[in-house]
């Protein structure tokens, strides 16, 4: 006879074996179920992907940046200072949504918005100026036009003092702006010596501007322009005596025209001064004054004769409209790359700048299209650079478009004073957008802009409309996106046939 356990509550061997077996069966069932679940999940994923191929840049639309397959990423903790250097494009945090939408940040895969005024207030930028550098047809003008259009929503207006291709007309007219066309059959005349707008306060100190200060402001603007034009035409800097003769002539011309001189009268005063020489210091006699000013006079004559005839030789027939949402000066009637074009751009630039004085007109963009036209003329560049200094106080933001950094070589050799002026113009722009560059330009671009190797690598492979944005110390790779309407407004390929 077999005797079972006498201890109450203790299981028999058979009971234990049965319990173990049940447990194993349960475990087996669970793992079967898990396997089945996994199989079903995989089947579902496969079904989801079947027939679909992911585009090279990932999904677009509202599934952008998402994946149905979970990604396992190993994480590393690192300070943002180091990360910025080690992972140049990945580290910058998103720029946030302030300012106009430009397009996509290609690395962060999010929208890229930009507002230089906000960045300036935050201390990320030392000025609001911007340079857009890229070879022909890479989308520089498109970017500037779209920024101008989108800026309107923020109440910012845009002024284009010189549009050598006349390509801004459509954009400006579409928003109810004013286009001034010079040359050709237009018959329009513009007096670059116009006084412009009297600001309510002084830009350095913020004090009200009295009559005397206003007169000095206008005189300086006129002298700066005339000296830049004359020394460009004479291909040398003016001597002190020549500057003095010019100043005397300008004062006399101004008195003759009730404070609104015109260039022919200044020329006349240089050749045939009406100012009694006894009242002037430094000149021996009238003969001496006339001799000193002779060359200056001939240079001035060039501005009202020859190719520039009829443009700047009398009172303006066109006016500046300070309330216009956009304004541009169409210069398509003049030959690109000529000295005349550069002189005209300097005159129209100065005229616009005089009209934009004051901080009570809101934030404004001043777009210098094809600024490389000025690159061969350091005096004109210097004048432009000094006008950049107005920016901070008067809420102006200058945007310059350049073809390539080697345009700077045209100004002067490395280390020369002229070259320093041109490079200084670039260093006055805290935001640089580099579009595609010719391969022989890459080294130069890297040197002048101080690009990192990885930034340079990115620049080499840029598509049209994509650029490397250097915003202060941070770099972003951005694809500029246009709406269908903007595409029509900014397309410049029409005459070449569609791409
Ligand atoms: N973001 C973009 N995406 C795709 N194509 C673009 C983009 N921007 C511009 N383009 C196309 O490139 C062409 C040239 O553009 P745009 O005139 O702006 O170039 P550009 O750099 O100003 O040229 P240029 O140096 O001759 O003035 C346009 O016709 C336009 O259709
Ligand atoms: Mg262009």
Describe the model:
The protein has 499 residues and is an alpha/beta fold. The chain has a domain at 112-190 and 316-496: Rossmann fold. The chain is built from 16 helices and eleven strands. It has helices spanning 13-49, 80-86, 116-122, 140-151, 169-174, 211-234, 240-256, 263-271, 286-302, 339-355, 378-388, 391-394, 417-427, 442-449, 453-460, 484-490, and strands at 100-105, 110-114, 130-133, 157-163, 178-181, 326-330, 364-368, 396-402, 431-434, 466-471, 474-480. Strands 2-1-11-10-9-3-8-7-4-6-5 form an eleven-stranded mixed β-sheet. β1 and β2 form a beta hairpin. The chain is elongated, with a radius of gyration of 34 Å. The model has no long low-confidence stretch (mean pLDDT 85). The structure holds adenosine-5'-triphosphate and magnesium ion (MG). Adenosine-5'-triphosphate (ATP) binds next to α4.
Q: What is the gist of this entry?
A:
With 499 residues, this protein is of the alpha/beta class.
Keywords:
499 residues, alpha/beta, Rossmann fold, 12% strand, elongated, binds adenosine-5'-triphosphate, binds magnesium ion
